[in-house]
Specification:
This protein has 748 residues and is α/β, with parallel strands linked by helices. It has four domains: 169 residues, 3-Layer(aba) Sandwich (Rossmann fold), CATH 3.40.50.150; 120 residues, Type II secretion system, protein E, N-terminal domain (GMP Synthetase, Chain A, domain 3), CATH 3.30.300.160; 121 residues, 2-Layer Sandwich (Beta-Lactamase), CATH 3.30.450.90; 243 residues, 3-Layer(aba) Sandwich (Rossmann fold). 33% of the residues lie in helices and 25% in strands. It contains 28 helices and 28 strands. The protein has an eight-stranded mixed sheet, with helices on both faces. A seven-stranded mixed sheet has the order 5-4-3-6-7-8-9. Strands 15-14-13-18-17-16 form a six-stranded antiparallel sheet, covered by helices on one side. A hairpin with a 2-residue loop joins strand 17 and strand 18. Helix 6 crosses helix 9 and helix 22 runs antiparallel to helix 24. The protein is globular.
Length: 748
């Protein structure tokens, strides 16, 4: 029986490499050698009735049938069961397929002469033993969350007695790289690149910026058969005294933390996928241990929360590092004195923000109550499991001010500062802004990761292939002005940095930037920070830079007419100039430059392209499903009706996105490239509406069109259009059916 017929075409080479084959949800069918060993252990005789638990691709059932067995097979996943039944029917084999819980057996078909379990189990299912005929054999692998599993054979004698026989160990777990590719968390190319590096595959992928810590541990949880824990749910009924009863050094060494007792079981969180809880179970009356895997960041968040609840126990604690810029939060401990406790509270909040992928932390006070909120994927969400009094908020803000070199005595005026900290192998630049209010000081912290390997590329931004190609071509221009516009927080700087990374790889060009502040350090790029109080503003920097013999100049932001004039002058003298501007769309940008005092002829001659962008919530890859179109929104977007085959998608909610249906954000871009018609219209001072008519369907790739392309591709929900476009821009502006070229999402 050719095993290659039972696997997808792209995995057929794996058959000849004798590799496990992933079949979904972190499961795999074992390698050919391992599967042969399982069938051999069954000691099957032709004509016997055999039950297989875990159909997978159907290969084992096909082999058993060709050996003369009458085979019944049970598969839990409907998709696999249906596909296997179709393959087996095509081969005209005597196999009955059923979708259900295989560990419950198949009562209607029992008894069986032999039962083969192709999926590991924590315990031997009693139901399967009951369904054995006298003389029947059950072969089953155990310890499903470990790399090597013990295979057991049970035999029922004529009197109904069961004997157990260990048959040795078997490698049964899908390779981590295969799971990551199956999940869509990493590409096959990045996995192979990371595999060539020394050390663990997961750590190498995270180090390359090709994988997030959360996705790595989600894959490890699938591979080891462990649930992935979340801090919020784990802390719901956590008991700090459980951890106090065990040596802190022992727990830290084994990367475990006992949290609660549930129904006679001890709930333990660990960041070690291979953790052994045998020694820990001996220290508690509960002999049964429920193990949940957490990320290293979440592991430290748990300890931070427990330490705050129980700050003065008998546990040995280390004082935090004196220099907050050098301290690693994953290695920090809580100091029992008041200052240490305030710092610990701040670090616990910071760890929560990093673990939740927050871009900002908001400290707010209203009357006697304090509100903590995180901005995640553009939305504000309350941080509910940490509560603070006004006095604690004041103390935490003092810690924040000291770290960012602000005046702790000044509460009447806004202040701004920054500092750096590390969380594991990640470095964050924290931008701090305080603001006096009616009830006291508020503060906002922006978190900017500084790891160069994790800077998004043009492909990571989510640009369509067409816009990405046009962006790269624009960067190759000999001179001209490229602007990225949009509201605050729309990813303008990120888009420019993605372009800078492309330019920095070209050793034949010199690149200089002037920024306020420098958000990311880039190798191969000469970066400067503006200092207006010293007379070094954007315009001053531009005048100096043109004498530094650059090829490309990036200006962080055009804020005034003087900076705009210097940018245009630099473009006129043979430089590519990149910058940002606060505008609503590409056409408004032209009017904004005129308002800043730029002559229309200068704008028309130097402008290369204008990108206007927004950030939309991305549908979670783990739970994407087709959705029905909202008829109200459809009538606004498609007055003549949606194009044939137009399909939208939503996220149903899963563990990866914590039930929200969206995970991360993606750029929605409007691109206006300069054309002879546009230059003529600008030079002749046409109004904004007339400019829009000139470029519609010509050199403009509209925001509406980009958004609908992302909807059709299953990247963003259809409802997101209301957040991206004003009501008058939802429908086609000219009544043309250009958007009807957006086809249905391709699958397969």
């Amino acid at each position: 029986m050719d095993r290659a017929r039972f696997v997808p075409y792209e995995m057929r080479s794996w058959v000849y490499q004798d590799r496990p084959i992933p079949v979904g949800e972190g499961r795999s069918i074992p390698s050919l050698g391992a599967q042969a060993a399982l069938i051999d252990a069954l000691r099957m005789v032709p004509g016997e009735r055999v039950l297989e638990v875990g159909t997978g691709t159907g290969y084992a059932a096909a082999v058993l049938a060709t050996m003369g067995a009458r085979v019944d097979t049970v598969e839990r996943l409907p998709r696999l069961a249906a596909a296997a039944a179709e393959r087996l029917a095509a081969l005209e084999l005597d196999v009955a397929t059923h979708c259900g819980d295989g560990f419950e057996g198949w009562d209607d078909r029992a008894p069986f002469d032999a039962i083969l379990v192709s999926a590991g189990a924590h315990e031997v299912p009693a139901k399967l033993l009951q369904q054995l005929a006298p003389g029947g054999r059950l072969v089953i692998p155990t310890r499903p969350h470990e790399i090597r599993q013990t295979v057991l054979r049970f035999t029922k004698d004529a009197d109904g007695h069961i004997s157990e026989e260990p048959l040795g160990e078997l490698a049964f777990v899908t390779l981590l790289g295969d799971i990551l590719v199956e999940m869509g968390a990493a590409t096959r190319q990045s996995v192979e690149k990371a595999a060539a590096k020394p050390g663990a595959l997961g750590d190498a992928l995270v180090g390359l910026g090709a994988l997030s810590e959360t996705d790595l541990y989600r894959a490890l949880a699938l591979q080891r058969g462990l649930p992935l824990g979340h801090v919020e749910s784990l802390l719901t009924d956590a008991d700090p005294m459980l951890a106090a009863g065990v040596s802190r050094a022992f727990l830290e060494h084994n990367r475990m933390v006992p949290l609660a007792r549930r129904d006679g079981r001890l709930l333990v969180a660990t960041s070690d996928p291979e953790a052994s809880v045998a020694d820990l179970a001996k220290a508690f009356p509960s002999r049964r241990v429920e193990l949940q895997l957490v990320t290293p960041t979440d592991y430290r968040r748990l300890w931070a929360a427990l330490d705050l609840w129980d700050p003065v126990g008998d546990l040995p604690r280390e004082k935090p590092e004196a220099d907050p810029r050098a301290a690693d939060l994953l290695d920090s401990r809580v100091d029992p004195d008041a200052e240490g406790r305030n710092r610990a509270l701040f670090e616990a909040i910071l760890l929560d923000a990093v673990g939740a992928r927050a871009s900002d932390i908001h400290f707010e006070v209203y009357g006697e109550s304090v509100r903590l909120r995180l901005r995640i994927d553009g939305e504000m969400r309350d941080l509910t499991h940490i509560t603070m009094t006004r006095e604690q908020l004041s103390a935490v803000l003092n810690v924040l001010k000291v770290s960012s070199h602000l005046d702790i005595a000044e509460r009447r005026l806004p202040q701004g500062g920054r500092f750096r900290t590390r969380v594991g192998d990640r470095t964050f630049d924290l931008r701090v802004q305080t603001q006096p209010s009616l009830y006291g000081e508020h503060a906002v912290i922006r978190l900017l990761p500084q790891d160069e390997n994790r800077l998004p590329t043009i492909e990571d931004l989510g640009f369509s292939k067409e816009i990405a190609t046009r962006y790269r071509r624009l960067l190759d221009s000999p001179s001209g002005l490229i602007l990225v516009v949009g509201p605050t927080g729309s990813g303008k700087s990120t888009t420019l940095y993605a372009g800078l990374q492309v330019l920095a790889r070209d050793a034949t060009r010199k690149i200089i930037t002037v920024e306020d502040p420098i958000e990311y350090a880039l190798r191969g790029v000469q970066q400067a920070q503006v200092r207006p109080h010293l007379g070094f503003a954007f315009a001053n920097a531009m005048r100096a830079f043109v004498r530094q013999d650059p090829d490309v100049i990036l200006v962080g932001e055009i804020r005034d007419g003087e900076t705009a004039l210097e940018a245009i002058r630099a473009s006129q003298t043979g430089h590519v100039v990149l910058s940002t501007l606060h505008c609503n769309d590409t056409i408004d940008t032209v009017q904004r430059l005129i308002d800043l005092g730029m002559h229309p002829n200068s704008i028309a001659s130097e402008i290369l392209a204008i990108f206007a962008q927004r950030l939309a919530r991305r549908i979670c890859d783990g739970c994407r499903r087709p959705a029905e179109l909202d008829p109200t929104l459809v009538s606004e977007v498609f007055p003549q009706g949606p194009p044939p085959g137009f399909q939208s998608y939503v996220g149903a909610g899963c563990e990866r996105c914590t039930g929200r249906g969206t995970y991360g954000r993606i750029a929605v871009v409007e691109l206006l490239e300069a054309s002879p018609g546009l230059r003529h219209a600008i030079a002749h001072r046409l109004s904004v509406d007339e400019l829009r008519e000139v470029v519609e369907g010509d050199s403009l790739h509209s925001l509406r069109k980009s958004a609908l392309e992302l909807v059709a591709a299953g990247k963003i929900p259809f409802a997101e259009l209301r957040r991206l476009l004003p009501p008058e821009r939802l429908a086609p502006s000219t009544g043309r059916a250009d958007i009807h070229r957006v086809g249905p999402r391709r699958t397969g």
